[in-house]
Design a protein that fits this description.
The strands form three sheets. The chain has a six-stranded parallel beta sheet, with helices on both faces. The longest helix has 18 residues, at 227-244. It has three domains: 2-141, Rossmann fold (3-Layer(aba) Sandwich); 166-422, TIM Barrel, CATH 3.20.20; 436-491, no CATH class. 44% of the residues lie in helices and 14% in strands. Helix 10 (263-272) links the parallel strand 11 and strand 12 (274-282). It contains 20 helices and 14 strands. The termini are far apart. The structure holds iron/sulfur cluster. The site of iron/sulfur cluster (SF4) has 11 residues, from helix 7.
């Protein structure tokens, strides 16, 4: 059996960083972890090949070579998926498709030969058996949330790791919270399920053996979903492994804001090599937080919580949303002020969108407020897929105003300075932190060329560089990295 695993390309979103990656000589931010895991689950005697369309071209000859085309995709890859389906159909090759796009929106893909809904671990043995027997079913559906203690270790040999800015691992699935707009609970459940400690370490070891020595992103929905067991078992294991290997990796992940309440956990994360966390802040407005059920963000000083984490030694990246029913027109200015004050440089501000199967989707459907299907890209004004309470034009104009303000050079470099003032990185640097690589030279030269010579806002860039050399020289590479990221944010405005 010959299986072609295809990962569709995605358009420019907050997460894509395409322009910056080009400067750094990389092709994509992250590898397709789900497909790499599926690749590892295929029988040993089957031939397999993986094409990530974000790094390579999907040639007709690859499709012709295969017996089956396996696709895994998120909602934001929908358009690319449609093109792949058409291509495969034209060449007469059957498709097996899974992942969040199909799990929450399979009704749009009834022309796909075989659909895999839900998490694949439970259904995969049956799929393989049916493929062997030449009688695969139209649909495989896993309604429960399987144990992930012993899932397959991704087959990293299917990709060229050098194409990517960061590698990925997954430690857990699920999140104990239940925000109205989020599809994590529907996809992965509220009870965090974790891999075994041994499994997690084996995955890190595999990446290490593959020669990787840089950043690793824990793709978990909420890394701190079960803090007690994380502190007791997993963090000590990661720390021990990092020490044994002389700290080859830096880590980043996604967490909820209550990380700020747990000093012990933050210190363990720093010791393990975590340098940044992404947090869904969403909004400084208490009514909007109440409306979307983000109770963990309520009744706290959010700026203070962010600063506690920065002071401890991790950069905080933040997600923000406008378009809640409770939002007043003052929300746009409040979001700008909050973002500037918090020193969240990587502030990903999006419009509220109703993703399929979420509680928000259901509520809007019941009140006839849905207007179209979601594209999954919440940064485009055209992506608004429901009738907002606020006048639509006011909402879209206010949203654009936030983006054009916070990513304008003056505000952006000011935020970097605010962050660098608060940020207290770990004293002991990871191995890869100090090693000068071509990657760093490209970042320095690229930033000087693009930000110091070519683009507008040059003066602010040079002021930041000077300030950083004089006041925070140890964080100079960090200032360069954050400055470069600004190119991406200004490009997607
Ligand atoms: S905390 Fe984050 S992952 Fe968890 S339900 Fe809310 S938005 Fe989703």
């Amino acid at each position: 059996m010959k299986i072609l695993l295809v990962y569709p390309d995605y358009e420019e979103t907050f997460w894509s960083f395409k322009r910056v990656l080009r400067i750094l000589g990389k092709k994509a931010s992250f590898p397709p972890l789900g497909l790499l895991t599926v690749g590892a689950m295929l029988p040993d005697d089957w031939e397999k090949r993986l094409v990530d369309m974000n790094t390579d071209i999907l040639k007709d000859e690859y499709i012709k070579w295969a017996d089956y085309i396996f696709i895994s995709a998120m909602i934001v890859q929908k358009e690319s998926v449609r093109r792949i389906i058409n291509k495969a159909k034209k060449l007469g090759k059957p498709i097996v498709a899974g992942g969040p796009l199909f799990t929450t929106g399979w009704e749009e893909f009834t022309d796909v030969d075989h659909l895999v809904l839900g998490e694949v671990e439970e259904t995969f043995p049956a799929i393989v058996e049916d493929l062997k027997n030449g009688a695969p079913k139209k649909m495989y559906s896993s309604n429960g949330f399987p144990d992930i203690k012993e899932v397959a270790i991704p087959d990293w040999n299917l990709i060229n790791v050098k194409n990517y800015n960061s590698m990925c691992v997954q430690f857990s699935r699920g999140c104990p919270f239940n925000c109205e707009f989020c599809d994590v609970v529907q996809l992965n459940g509220r009870l965090p399920r974790m891999k075994s400690k041994e499994q997690l370490i084996a995955e890190l070891e595999t990446l290490y053996r593959r020669g990787w020595r840089a950043g690793v992103f824990f793709v978990d929905d909420n890394f701190i979903g079960n803090k007690a067991i994380l502190k007791k078992e997993y963090m000590p294991a990661i720390i021990e492994w990092q020490k044994k290997k002389k700290h080859p990796f830096t880590f980043n992940t996604q967490v909820s804001i209550n990380l700020a309440d747990d000093k012990e956990l933050m210190e363990l994360m720093i010791e393990a090599g975590f340098t940044a966390v992404f947090i869904g802040i969403e909004t400084p407005d208490a009514d909007s937080l109440e409306e979307c059920g983000k109770f963990q963000n309520k009744n706290r000083n959010l700026v203070e919580s962010v600063k506690i984490i920065q002071n401890c030694g991790m950069e905080v990246q933040g997600g923000f949303i406008v378009g809640f029913d409770s939002d007043k027109v003052s929300i746009f200015q409040r979001q700008i002020e909050f973002i500037q004050k918090s020193g969240i440089v990587t502030a990903m501000v999006g419009l509220l969108i109703a993703l399929p199967k979420t509680r928000l989707y259901q509520r809007l459907k019941e009140t006839n407020r849905l207007t179209k299907k979601s594209t999954g890209n919440n940064t485009k004004t055209s992506s608004l897929n429901f009738i907002p309470k606020m006048d639509k034009n006011v909402l879209l104009a206010g949203y654009k105003k936030i983006l054009s303000t916070i990513y304008a050079p003056k505000a952006y470099y000011e935020r970097i300075r605010t962050l660098l003032r608060e940020y207290k990185p770990a004293k002991k640097k990871p191995q890869n932190f100090n090693a000068l690589r071509i990657y760093h030279i490209r970042a320095l030269v690229g930033s000087i060329w693009w930000l110091g010579i070519k683009q507008r806002g040059r003066l602010y860039f040079w002021k930041l560089i000077l300030w950083s050399i004089l006041k925070r020289p140890s964080l100079f590479p960090y200032a360069i990295g954050l400055s470069l990221t600004g190119i991406h944010f200004r490009a997607i405005l």
